[in-house]
Specification:
With 398 residues, the chain is of the alpha/beta class. It is built from 10 helices and 19 strands.
């Protein structure tokens, strides 16, 4: 095996790695001993603490803020096809334990010890997102490993996400193995869907809210439901399938709403489901003006706080959105308020809800709280792996 280059850390910078984290920030590197510009993007290197003790092997991204990601605690173990197969098998065993059908997030990056890699499984279709230059260099080995572990008919590389830009990676979407596709079928909580894996957001689907969407079953029977930021109907179609009287899906994407219609037909609920295309905030204001009311309002927006510096603006946005949602509820209605912003803590979401209720003179009861499913495991030493929140809130007159 070719000898690997060494990255030396500043004094004390090894603490987070020792606690179980995988990230190395550029300001933690002893750049006098090991200048960052001396490393090749994507190469695998030995990480040493300030006195020369070996910490493991990492992928290098010398021009990024997170310049290194630990991939092995064994200094002699590089990431190769064999290790990829091993880690994929470990990831697969969790999903097969938790889920009855092969529809789930197979790989959740750092949580599955595969930094910079996300793989969503749609039966015999795998959709792969690579966000680190190190994993990109192993793309061919990854294809072989995925074929060996999952035996799919198609592997699609959906490498057009914004996370590739900091790694200076090109953007592309192409089939790496198998037949050309546009869509992929899946089943979630007994409800069937078609996901636009090529043209849709991210991998085409969001498996993370699976367990939260399952909880709708107890609350929507015979109810009027409003699904804000519906995308292709993950929440709304399930609400209809669970017995809602009517469901209105709101999204700014005509493509997404065309899939809402397809998914409604797929589940024989097209007579219950309608959609409104437009900016969600503006649509809410229009519905309020028209005097519309719903029994259940679902609020699952995109991340309003993508970076820590967006914290204050983002928290105000969550408050504003939830306040509008509450105004659209019937007396004794249910608000399902979700956030995928890692930077928005659970207490901060509760605060946004409290302030919204206070402004509208409503009494709130949080009756359930949800998080991400088992296919998005949380690593205690890596707080960034925990990001999803869902609050089921009863909204009453004061």
């Amino acid at each position: 095996m070719m000898e690997m280059n060494v990255l030396q850390l500043n004094k004390g910078a090894e603490k987070r790695l020792k606690q179980g984290h995988l990230w190395i920030y550029s300001n933690e590197v002893d750049v006098k001993a090991t200048p960052l510009k001396s490393f090749v993007p994507g190469e695998q290197i030995i990480v040493k603490d300030h006195v020369g003790r070996e910490m493991g092997v990492a992928f290098m991204s010398p021009s990024s803020l997170i310049c290194g990601r630990l991939i092995s605690r064994d200094p002699k173990q590089k990431m190769d096809q064999s290790l990829l197969v091993h880690r994929l098998k470990i990831a697969l065993s969790l999903r097969e334990l938790a889920f009855d059908s092969p529809h789930y997030r197979l790989v959740f990056g750092d949580s599955d010890a595969l930094p910079g890699l996300v793989v969503d499984r749609f039966g015999d279709v795998l959709v792969v997102q690579i966000s680190s230059v190190g994993m990109e260099t192993l793309k061919d080995e990854l294809l072989v490993a995925l074929e060996k572990v999952c035996k799919p008919k198609t592997i699609l590389f959906k490498n057009n996400g914004k996370m590739r830009a900091p790694e200076e990676l090109e953007s592309y979407v192409k089939v790496g193995f198998g037949e050309e596709i546009e869509d992929a079928p899946l089943e979630e909580n007994g409800v069937k869907f078609i996901a636009p894996v090529v043209t849709g957001q991210k991998t085409g689907w969001f498996y993370d809210h699976r367990m939260n969407r399952a909880r709708l079953k107890d609350y929507v029977k015979g109810k009027r439901v409003l699904d804000l930021y519906s995308y292709v109907g993950g929440w709304g179609i399930q609400a209809a399938a669970f017995g809602a009287e009517s469901v209105t899906c709101v999204d700014s994407s005509s493509l997404a709403l065309s899939y809402v219609a397809k998914n409604a037909v797929l589940n024989n609920v097209e007579d219950k489901v309608n959609s409104i295309e437009g900016d969600v905030i503006e649509v809410c204001r229009q519905l309020i003006e028209e005097g519309e009311k719903f029994d259940v309002v679902i609020v699952d927006p995109p991340a309003f706080i993508p970076r820590r510096k967006d914290q204050k603006v983002g928290e105000r946005a969550y408050q504003k959105l939830n306040q509008l949602a509450m105004r659209l509820l019937n007396r004794d209605g249910l608000l399902v308020s979700a956030s995928c912003s890692m930077h928005l803590s659970r207490p901060a979401l509760v605060t946004a809800l409290r302030l919204s209720g206070q402004t509208l003179e409503k009494r709130l009861q949080i009756i359930e709280q949800g998080a991400q499913g088992a296919d998005h495991p949380i690593v205690p030493a890596i707080p960034e792996t925990e990001y999803l929140k869902a609050m089921f809130v009863r909204v009453l007159p004061l």
